[in-house]
Amino acid sequence: MLKPTRVSMSMVAARAGVSGQTVSRVANDSPKVDPETRARVEQAMAELGYRPNRAARALRTGRSQTLGLVAQTLATVGNSRMLQAVAESAASRGYALTVLTLGPDADIAEAFDRLRDQGVDGAIVLNEATALARDAASAGLRLVVVDSPPDDRFTVIGTDHAAGARAATEHLLAAGHRTVHHLAGPSGSFAAAERERGWREALAAAGVEAPRVARGDWSAASGFDLASRMPTADVTAIFAANDQMALGALRALAEIGRRVPDDVAVIGFDDIADAAQFTPPLTTVRQDFDALGEQAVSGLVSWIEGEHPADLLLAPTLITRASA
Fold it and tell me: Right CATH number for 161-286 from 3.40.50.200, 3.40.250.10, 3.30.70.930, 3.40.50.2300?
């Protein structure tokens, strides 16, 4: 006799000692199942290798159990780490993930139309795509946007970039530097603008006039180029808008014979995985990308299930190492 190739709900129900309706409720994340019964059914599912039929569940519930993710690019460290965090959090809740990258000339409204056509239950929009999201005809699609000004059309989850930049700048001023120079991110980035704002606010609070901003594109190459052109006698402290630009600055300073932190102190932003391995190890502002991804997915799933989530800003942490 041939063994069945697909595990059915009735087989799970028999193994768990419950009704088929109870198994269906567990598979559809219904709250009408007590924790002990849910655990028993989930154990039976795991033992038998049961996989819910996504198409059938979509017909029953009107939900695809699929989330969209929209990003301008996945080439930046922040966006790639956010993608990883979102994917893991979505999978832990039984959701699939559809990813769209826009590129420099993409039509954001068309991208959202594509997501609607694919039947996603909602979408998460990352970082540099947030300005585009504000211009999109997003009615009818639940959106959680990472790093954006408040907007009634979607929920915002983000890092308090300005607070992190203030902490970095205040740390440098407290160390005795007369001023702090800033390697800023690109002008179209909300996160870059917030980090620049925090830097300016810290200088203003200390009664220090802000030096001219040197603006890069998040890359180490731009940090190297900008730091190479800074007037050496005037610069004793640099706050870079991300760790890659800080890395470029460290190389530029080494090549012109300026020691870090003895001659110039350097602080970055993000706390990427290799920041502690820079020469010297980089003082930086840590974003919790795992928590951002978790909160973005949690908020979107709550919205899908009928509860509109509130906006949320996560506090960053200054990580002090040898560079400042």
Answer: 3.40.50.2300
* Least-confidence region, from 19-23, 101-105, 120-124: 101-105
The confidence score (pLDDT) of residue 1 equals 38
- Fold annotation for 9-52: 434 Repressor (Amino-terminal Domain) (1.10.260)
User: Is CATH 3.40.50.2300 the classification given to domain 66-159+289-316?
Assistant: yes
106-141 tens-digit pLDDT? 667 777 778 877 788 888 988 665 555 655 545 568
Distance CA(292)–CA(67), nearest Å, equals 16
Determine the distance from the C-alpha atom of residue 323 to the mean position of all C-alpha atoms in its chain, rounded to a whole number: 26
Q: Record the tokens describing residue 119, joined without a space.
A: 């039947």
Structure tokens, 208: 């220090």
pLDDT tens by residue, 32-44: 788 888 889 888 8
